[in-house]
Amino acid sequence: MRLPFAPAKLSLSALLLVSAPLLLQGCSEAPQQQQGQMHPAAVATMTMETHDAPFTIELPATLSGSKEVEVRARVTGILESRNFEEGQRVEQGQSLFTIDLEPYQLAVDRAQAALDGAKAALVQADRDVKRLAKLRAEKSVSQRDYDNASSANDIAKTDLAAAKVALKEAQLNLEYAQVKAPVAGVMGREFVSEGTYVSGPDLLLTQMTQFDPIRIRFGLSEREQLQMRQDVKNGSLTLPEQGHWKTQIKLQDGSLYGQTGEVNFSDVRINPNTGTSEFQAIIPNPDFQLRPGQFVRVELSGAVRKNAFIVPQRAVLDNGTGKFVYVVSKNEQGMDVALPAPVTVGEWIKKPENEQYQNFWLIRSGLKEGDQVIVDGMARIFFPGMPVNVGQPAANPSHAE
């Protein structure tokens, strides 16, 4: 039996012609429906205000002893003993070596005896002058005899002074025979063993290093120095007085060394091989935790950025071509939307642990006063211009520490 209302067969081309307008209409309406149905992303913002922010520099550095001392004997003789262990910490004035003391002790005794004789001779000369002065007044002796006595008295005084100098020299040589540490520090290895004849200062006995304080040496590039001078000139940067940067050491594990110091030397010359000039800082090292030759990083602080914008570090994103932040703006319908704003960043500003945000970026360009920068909720922004719902504003620090 043939059905009275059997469906007509359509060719594939006719079917496509009928369905194409419907498909195009559906595609054009889909983004609008999706955008209209998408809920605004919940974000928190920070309103941009200018601040005086600390300017810090972090650089690689090398440690060295504040004094590298070569220990030499000032007198000659047979080396009798070594009075330290290699690598031992010693105090200033501590005996390191002992040279045969007996010849120098005998020289002291001889000088002391000569001094005693000079004192006795002066006493006798004083008596002669006093006695002849009385006789001369009575005209019992000639003027020549009195003059001779006076001259003998003057010579006796000179001999006494020379005897005192000779005794002091003998005592000094006796002290030099006990070779002492010129500074407090750590001993190196010995170069001369007991029983060796020490010929004087030309023979190196050992070396020692003063660890407290310790010296930090690092280089600052000519480009960075030029940029800082330009910033100082235009009023956006204030440097420490007389270049005395405060210094703190960051160790290899990222921890900060407990003591701080300051820069005490900056070389005016530029090293042509590295393009840097050398800086030096001194920092206390009472526990000898730091050692010469150690590689560390040094943080320089004490400079101030004037009228700067700062944002939390996490608010600054990178799209592969540069850094940017999301700023809240109004679209044509008056809705709050997130728009990317390219920025040029400066230094990291590290804030204390008890602050709401620990790390901040200093923004050199790309923002203006009053901009609302999104600092929380960036992961909910799927495309530029996406609607956002601004919640509780993030705390805007009154100053950066």
From TrEMBL:
<dbReference type="InterPro" id="IPR058624">
    <property type="entry name" value="MdtA-like_HH"/>
</dbReference>
<feature type="signal peptide">
    <location>
        <begin position="1"/>
        <end position="24"/>
    </location>
</feature>
<dbReference type="InterPro" id="IPR058625">
    <property type="entry name" value="MdtA-like_BSH"/>
</dbReference>
<feature type="domain" description="Multidrug resistance protein MdtA-like barrel-sandwich hybrid">
    <location>
        <begin position="68"/>
        <end position="199"/>
    </location>
</feature>
<feature type="domain" description="Multidrug resistance protein MdtA-like beta-barrel">
    <location>
        <begin position="213"/>
        <end position="301"/>
    </location>
</feature>
<dbReference type="InterPro" id="IPR006143">
    <property type="entry name" value="RND_pump_MFP"/>
</dbReference>
<dbReference type="Pfam" id="PF25876">
    <property type="entry name" value="HH_MFP_RND"/>
</dbReference>
<feature type="domain" description="Multidrug resistance protein MdtA-like alpha-helical hairpin">
    <location>
        <begin position="109"/>
        <end position="177"/>
    </location>
</feature>
<dbReference type="InterPro" id="IPR058626">
    <property type="entry name" value="MdtA-like_b-barrel"/>
</dbReference>
<dbReference type="Pfam" id="PF25917">
    <property type="entry name" value="BSH_RND"/>
</dbReference>
<dbReference type="Pfam" id="PF25944">
    <property type="entry name" value="Beta-barrel_RND"/>
</dbReference>
<protein>
    <submittedName>
        <fullName>Efflux RND transporter periplasmic adaptor subunit</fullName>
    </submittedName>
</protein>
<keyword id="KW-0732">Signal</keyword>
<comment type="similarity">
    <text>Belongs to the membrane fusion protein (MFP) (TC 8.A.1) family.</text>
</comment>
